[in-house]
Each structure stands twice: as C-alpha cells, then as structure tokens.
Design brief:
With 117 residues, this protein is of the alpha+beta class. It has three helices and five strands, in the order H-H-E-E-E-H-E-E.
C-alpha cells in the first residue's frame, strides 16, 4: 500500500516488527527520511509524509546556473529552514554564488511552450 502526503507513519515499534529489524535501524531510517525532506516528525505526534513543494520557474537577468542541494547546518540556521528543506545555489558566470531558501525566490511566469507561438 502506497502512502500519500499527510499520512501518518506507524510508530517505531510497529515499523521494527513489520520489517523485522531493530528500533535503532528504524530510527536511522526515519532520520534519513527527515534529512531528505520526505517526512516531518513532531514529538509525541509521530511522523507524517511531507507534501512535496510546488515547482516554480525562476527567471534570471544574467546567465547563471541554479542547483538544489541540502543546506549545511550553518546555512539552515542562517536561513531559518526546517530539517529536510533544500536550498537553491545560484552560480553566475563571473563565479559569484548565492545560496537562497526556496521561499526567498520570486517565481517568474511559466515559460511558454515553443509550440504555443
């Protein structure tokens, strides 16, 4: 059975029993899922499947390359990001780079399909 965003995961004991593994392995797996931004966990409430973020088209004034990656601890603290939230790294042709929280990007209009002209 596939789970959907917002669905609650079973508790650690139930997951360990279901998969025939120890609770330490389940905790490690949950930690990895949180770090990858796939689940959210709250004390005493358990873990739920995270809703994937909406994709946005971002326009740039100068030639640049945008990549997404998980932030360092320092970047996460500075940008006030929750665990598992990626950052966007904009690298300009002059070598300058800027690290941005996804929520700090103003999305431009969607690019038109060449066949629409």
């Amino acid at each position: 059975m596939w789970s959907q965003p917002g669905d609650k995961l079973k508790n650690e004991d139930a997951l360990a029993e279901e998969f025939g593994t120890g609770k330490a392995t389940v905790r490690q797996a949950l930690r990895l899922l949180r770090a990858e931004g796939l689940i959210d966990t709250e004390n005493r409430r358990g873990s739920t499947i995270r809703t994937p973020p909406e994709l946005a088209v971002v326009g740039l004034e100068k030639p640049a390359r945008i990549t997404a990656r998980m932030p360092t601890v320092a970047e996460r603290t500075t940008l006030g990001l929750p665990e598992g939230e990626p950052v966007l790294v904009v690298t300009y042709t002059d070598g300058r780079t800027v690290v941005l929280a996804r929520s700090a990007i103003d999305a431009g209009p969607a690019m038109s399909d060449p066949g629409d002209d």
